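protien #1 (seq + structre)
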Amino acid sequence: MKLTAPLLAAVTLALSTGALAQTTKPGLWEVTNKMQSSSGEMEKAMASMEKQLAGMSPEQRKQMQEMMGKQGMSMGPSAGGGMSMKMCVTKEMAERNELPQQQQGACKTTQSPRSGNTMKISYVCTQPPSSGEGVMTFNGDTAYTMKMNTTTTVKGKPEKITMDATGKWLSSDCGTVKPKR
């Protein structure tokens, strides 16, 4: 797959941020993201990745699923465009209110205390250089929405990425999706 490092970092951070926010239910979660970039590079990279995933042999797809499974996730295209990721949240992870650390590079994530049903999130990465901030809105302990704005550099040029995400709890049983250790 030909995702550049900053785009890959933004995608993985965006896909994983939020699955373990305050008072979420442990179990299998699905996080769906739709992203837009100022240059269109993100959309091209996502379309290319979806095409590559669709063209994989059963053996290659199994290898990719196993690799992602070791990182505690399962990923694929979502209905209506974007990407969807399944993640396993243990009881202990939910109790700690921790955010998953799927992103690449040296990143620091900060979350504000929850105010009503919203929480602000921000992050800064040094490798690759990028930053973002957003707001999560909770719908009980089994669903949320998030809007995130990211700034990064792609091919030496500034890139702004906006993301709309939804998270929903699917089951108390994570099945084959293992929690990230």
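ok now protien #2
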Amino acid sequence: MRERNHSRHGFTLKELLVVIFIISALLFLLIPMGGRGREAARRLQCTNSMMQITLAMHNYHDTFGMFPTAMGGTGAGGNENRLNALIAFIPFMESSDLYEQIQVGTAGAPPGGPAPWDKQFPPWQRRLDNYRCYSAVDEEGDYKPTNYAFSIGDVTRDIHQLPKARGAFAPGLFTSFADFTDGNANTIAMTEIGTANRRNVHGQYAVGLPDTILTDPGICWRTVDSGKKYYLASVRLHDRGRGYNWVDGGAGPGLVNTILPPNGPTCAVGGLEAVDGVYSAGSEHPGGCNVAFCDGSVRFISETIDTGDLSVAPPTVEDFAETEFASPYGVWGALGTIAGQEEVDRNDLE
């Protein structure tokens, strides 16, 4: 019986190395694509959260004819007028039970709730997912954070006791759509802010700085390295960073001004939290941050957006108290004002 000859073909070492190289190259290409896909999904989630907040903002306005103050409350002996406007939107975001607990007071707290730093009040320890961005660093702390802050426009002085609002929101003041003569689509309501991650610029902020920054905000850039990504080791930072407590309406945790661009540094003057200064928007999204406008739209704004002349002093109350006063800080500053009458081309927002 004749035997058949079988020729066996396998991979040579050279061929095997080529196959391994091709597979490795494909994986090298696919892994960043997967990372970009995950970031795109997270950014979309953050956008949706901002849209839910702006919808609640509109519903609040429909109900009361105005927007809540950016920082307010029941005064001394209650919550020290430090509550964030985010609290006012809770009943419009399917959390009426939580809002009821705050209003009646629980665990020995007064009606309206205690000060934001009271860690014994259960509602203040509630984590609200709609107030967080999934791209942000998630660190468990003794307060529950937020990644959204209210715009006060391009002012740096007396920001917690302004007699007239320059931006869509202001501590102690109530605004309405009637005040937004620049147009709802051209007026920022809120922006993203980062959360603390070591010395990263977009989630941290410098504290106890001199008041020269209030008249020359460009000085704030001196607190960061040449790459504009990290604060210098010599700069004192806040213990917990931006947005560390969603309940607190002070500038450090809950406000932004439209002076330095998104992902720029933040500089608190002469103190830690509810003090004057330059408070920048920012996020973990590469290249910029999400911004919510007063018409309810949300757009991604690049960190390269035009900011005009940062060596010019910010407007004072006297500048805009009686007349329209254009922002000196380019497109970004113009978007922060409610009645500056600047001309804004939406194509400049990219």
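The chain has five helices and ten strands.
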